[in-house]
Each structure stands twice: as C-alpha cells, then as structure tokens.
Amino acid sequence: MPRVALATYDPGTAPSKDRDLPVLVRALRDAGAEAVALPWDDGGTDWGGFDLVVIRSTWDYSWRAEEFVAWAQKCAAVTRLANPAEVVRWNTDKRYLGDLAAAGVPVVPTRYLAPGDASDLPGDHEYVVKPTSGAGARYAARYTAEDHDTAVRHLARMHREGLTAMVQPYLAGIDVSGERALQFFGGRFLHASRKGAVLAPGTAYDDDKVAHPDLQPWTPTPAELAVAERALAAVPDAPELLYARVDLVDGEDGEPRVMELELVEPNLFLGLHPGSLAVVRDAILTAAG
Questions:
Q1: Percent helix, strand and coil across the chain, each rounded to 5?
Q2: How far apart are the C-alpha atoms of 244 and 265, rounded to whole Å?
Q3: CA-to-CA distance for 171 and 250, rounded, in angstroms?
Q4: 285 φψ region: left (φ > 0), alpha (ψ -120 to 50), beta (else)
C-alpha cells in the first residue's frame, strides 16, 4: 500500500480552490493507496513517511518562493518529490523563458527589469508587466504607451518588494484564439484546454483576476503539440517529469509560442476532463511504486 501525499496550500477557513484535490485523493484511496492532502508549509508533517510527495496546488508559493524552494529541497532529501526539487527551483523563476529561447523554443519575447534597473518600457505597442515569480496573474497588468506613468508605478511597487519584472508585448491573438494549455502526465499527452484573455485593458495590477476565464476543452493542433514537446525537451538536464503544462498563445505570425511552462503546481482541470482521472491516478501509483 503506497503512501502518497498531495502537497497543497492552506486555505484557512475558506474552501480550497483546488476542486480536483478531493477527487484525486479519493481515486488513489479507492485504488488501494494511503493518500492524503497536506499543506506544504505544515511544519509538523513528516514528509519522509511517504513513498511519494506530489506537488499539486501549492498556490500560495509565489509570495514565498525562496521558502518554497527550500521546502522542496528538504522534502526531496527524505523522499521522492514530483516534480524534482531542481525542476522546482528552475521553474519558479520565469526567467526560464530565456533558457527556452536560447534552446530554440519559440517563446513570447521577454525582457527582465530587476530592482535598480531603469523603467525601460515600450512606447510604441501594447505590453504586459508581471513578476518573474507569480501565479494567477498576480501583479500582472496590460498597458499602452499612454499608461506609462501607471506602469512605472507598477514597476516601482514590485521593485520595492524585491521582485524582478517581466515585460512582454501583448499579443493580440490572445483576444481571438485565447490561451491553450497542453497537459502532460506520466510522460505522455493528457489533455488540452483553452481559455480567454485574462488581462483586460484598464485592470489594475493589484486587482484580483479570473485565472481561467471561459475555460473549455481543446484539441491541440500538430503545431501546438510540436512546440509543447520542444519546450519539455529543453528543460535542463532532462529530468523525469511526472506532470507538465505548456501554455501557448499565437505570436504575431500566427504560430504558437510558449507563454509559460508550468512544472510546479499546474491546475489539472480534471473537472473539465473527467476521463483523465484514471490516467493521473495510475501515473501517480506507478511513480509511488
């Protein structure tokens, strides 16, 4: 009977936002595993008592990225962690997009402005500013050249908090074809979803956003699958990944580009793809064995 922990966040008195979590715990238990969901930052948990710890919905980590990476390293020292700690360290900092670009993967063009850098912002096209460590569009906003002063204040706020900013062109194709999320589990393609644009014009960077508007199942094109597989092949040192999500948008040329590569805690959207539950369950059991 394998012992499996699904690492999540502590929602306090509010219901958890991870609707897949109880479904997955139940499926693992029904298959004979001893499965439990636990907050990653619970200091009283003996992670070494599990055969496998799967990072599932640690959705508060971006506020404490260094603490989270340190936890992953400690956890990996006493048991098997999925995904591996070195993947967590690399993927929690979105400067990994530069690594993917250097490996020839088509990505959304990105510049980085660290604390102390000048506020070098575009003056001739719409753009997005967001932190290199973030989730759920936290501290992300969409600007035009006329919004320069607001964008500078946005940058200053992030820099005061020690955050490095990403500056990307706003790709208008998102408003037409949306953002596609291709998910892989157990080393193979699992399913795909499509969502609408998250960043509406005029929405403040510190406002709450709907992370997955108008989410629906999606059948990826051969080009989308090819780009996703290139991104996964470019992960440094070719680690064994239990799960992955590749978020794609259309570039100005209409071809898919990687917006994000989610290797830490991607939402699986099992409620939208109930047929995938058995595949996820079996892959976790195999990894725990």
A1: 30, 25, 45
A2: 9
A3: 7
A4: alpha
Strands 188-195 and 216-217: antiparallel
Question: Tokens for 253?
Answer: 């040329």
What does the pLDDT read at residue 185?
98
E strands present in 64-187: 80-82, 111-113, 127-131, 141-143, 165-169, 179-185
- Segment holding 245, helix H or strand E: strand 243-250
The H-or-E segment that residue 8 falls in is: strand 3-8
Average pLDDT, consecutive stretches of 10 residues, N- to C-terminus, the chain (289 residues): 97 94 98 98 97 96 92 98 97 96 97 93 92 79 92 93 93 91 97 90 76 92 98 94 97 94 96 97 97
- Given this model, what pLDDT does residue 272 score? 96
DSSP 25-57: HHHHHHTT-EEEEEETT-TT--GGGSSEEEEEE
pTM greater than 0.90: yes
Euclidean distance between CA atoms 231 and 92, whole angstroms: 16
C-alpha distance from residue 286 to each of 2, 4, 13, 280, 281 (Å): 10, 11, 34, 10, 9
| Residue-level pLDDT at 203 | 77
Q: Cα(5)–Cα(71) distance, rounded to whole angstroms? A: 14
The predicted structure's pLDDT at residue 31: 98
